[in-house]
Amino acid sequence: MATEWSDAQLVRRVQKGEKGAFDLLVLKYQHKIVNLVMRYVRDPDQALDITQEAFLKAYRALPRFRGDSAFYTWLYRIAVNTAKNYLAAQRRRPMDVELDLQDPEQFDLHANLKDTDTPEGVTLGRELHEAVERAIAALPDDLRTAIVLRELEGMSYEEIAQTMDCPVGTVRSRIFRARDAISKRIGNLID
Amino acid sequence: MNDALKMQISAFIDGELPENEAELLLRRLNQDAAMRQQVAKYLAIGRYMRRDPELPGMPELRSRIASALGEELAPAAQVEVRQASWFVRPALGVALAASVAVVALVGLRQSILPDDAGPGTQAAVEFTGSAPSITQAAAEDVLSEELRHMYLRHSASSADFGSSGMITRLVTLELQGGERVRIDPQNSAAETAAIDSMVPSEDDDADVDAAGERGTDDVNRVD
User: Fold this and answer.
1) What is the CA radius of gyration of chain B?
2) CA-CA 20 to 30 A from B112: which of A106, A160, A164, B94?
3) B52 to chain A: which residues are within 8 Å by CB?
4) Structure ipTM over 0.85, yes or no
């Protein structure tokens, strides 16, 4: 049976002292947390600082995390509190509306970030997107379909297997080969 | 990293890896920063495909957090350094020990050289930078042909390990505390010539003056 890239599994490992597991949690959630913090501060550097602080607080508090709530909800609250404390320290008011803590996924993530794009960031971002699109266009049909169904449609391997009329193992292999091919083509831009 | 492992990582980030494989992979991911970098790369591809927004400075955030937690995330470089250190460290230890021995003997040698020991001796004096005190004959008793070869062997082995005799020079500076002498590290041939001039060998018909001149060039006194 397949397992989710389980937060609980990673949290247990961090609680045993495995820092690498915390690195995986950072990888998994850093973008979401930065986007969340950007609802409070417009300055990207400040947002990154607050995000870093939120992760550090979470790491220090993880030994006491009992798992009563989902890890991300807990991390989300830490990030919100860190951002609010930062603003209080700056004697500024949050610029945005009240957030619904029950639904952290509802933000329009693009809206704030577009305002803060630097010319360099825009150029690199455009280069990357174009490079990825070229890489996807160059893939064989079966690989391209598999990766698009996974990354853009969010389908499970089982659903992709049904759609493409092939075994799940083949889907797994195709998605990997697609990622590997894209990675090789854009490697110099993302390393 | 082989393709089988990368395919596991690919399925892992999709939450599609069987539980037993995921558990094993997690164990390896915890130990291996390069594997976690592969996770980061595959996640990034998904973000670029979806055109998710990304702040400038975002790629460094993970390293910043790791640094703050006291762990560096420099996957490839760190692994390479760790792999190299197992043989470099003993080699440096051997080179250092040999250097100390040679320098101590060279120091002893120059401490017993006479004031009027001739051009070859002068080169040695300039090389070591301190005053001689007793006769050439006594010096030759102390410094044997074997010592000279030992020094040359050491220089060669140091070069093999990439240190180019640097440690020898550093130790030389340390031991000559009273008068600081800087010796350029690329001049091992001239340095050898200076040693040649100090210790006569059976086939030693080299131009001592020339060796002495080179020796002088090689040694830069620093006030």
Assistant:
1) 28
2) B94
3) 31, 109
4) no
Structure token pair of residue B109: 């040698």
Instruction: Give the pLDDT of residue A42.
Output: 84
Q: Which residue in chain A is spatially nearest to B71 when comparing CA positions?
A: A19
Report chain B residues whose CB lies below 8 A from the CB of A132. 45, 48-49
**The total number of residues written for chain B in this structure:** 223
pTM of the model: 0.56
Least confident of A9-18, A47-56, A118-127, B96-105: B96-105
* Cα–Cα distance measured from residue B185 to residue B170, given in angstroms and rounded to the nearest whole number: 10
B63: closest chain A residue by CA: A23
Alpha helices for chain B (secondary structure H) = 3-13, 19-31, 33-50, 58-68, 75-111, 119-128, 136-142, 145-160, 166-175, 188-198, 208-218
Tell me which of B27, B43, B65, B71 to substitute to probe the interface with A (most A C-beta atoms closer than 10 Å). B65
Residue of A nearest to B60 (CA): A48
DSSP state of A106: G
- Give Cα B42 to chain centroid, integer Å: 37
For residue B73, the chain A residues in CB contact (below 8 A) are: 23
- Residue A52 makes CB contacts below 8 A (sequence gap 6+) with B61, B64, B65, B68
Q: What residues of B are in contact with residue A113 (Cβ under 8 Å)?
A: 53-55
The pLDDT tens digits of the residues spanning B173-201 come to 444 444 444 444 444 444 444 434 433 33
pLDDT 10s digits, A8-55: 889 999 999 888 999 999 999 999 999 999 999 988 999 999 999 999
Distance CA A147, CA A168 (A): 13
DSSP B130-164: S---S-HHHHHHHS-HHHHHHHHHHHHHHHHTT-T
Tracing tokens 């160059």 back to the chain, one arrives at A138
Cα within 13 Å of Cα(A114), Cβ side: 6
Interface test with B, best of A1, A4, A5, A53 (most B CBs within 10 A): A5
pLDDT higher than 90, residue B102:
no
- Identity of the residue in A4, A55, A183 whose CB atom sits nearest the CB atom of B41: A183
Q: In chain B, which residues have their Cβ closer than 8 Å to the Cβ of A156?
A: 16
